[in-house]
Amino acid sequence: xxxxxxxxxxxxxxxxxxxxxxxxxxxxxxxxxxxxxxxxxxxxxxxxxxxxxxxxxxxxxxxxxxxxxxxxxxxxxxxxxxxxxxxxxxxxxxxxxxxxxxxxxxxxxxxxxxxxxxx
Length: 119
Prior knowledge:
By secondary structure, the chain is of the alpha/beta class. 36% of the residues lie in helices and 19% in strands. It has a 5-stranded parallel sheet with strand order 2-1-3-4-5, with helices on both faces.
């Protein structure tokens, strides 16, 4: 299957997402948030975005670091600050350059559907 990076601050959420993805046969890694190790084999990054509706310099820097470290990867943003998940066509997803934005908490089915669509 695919190589996926999960960059999530909350350890319980990170473990849950990783378990769901590994259960589907994906190779899952979780680097330190501020030190993503470059890897051009990564196909997807799931990135915790604390403020997707009002992205500041921290959000922009995190996205730039992810795109630099994983140049061929799609990015799914995940945040507690969203009332509902948003697709690729939403203004917010387009402005951030992500494939999709998922509201936390999300269901296993919602996450796996977003992953399938992004890959």
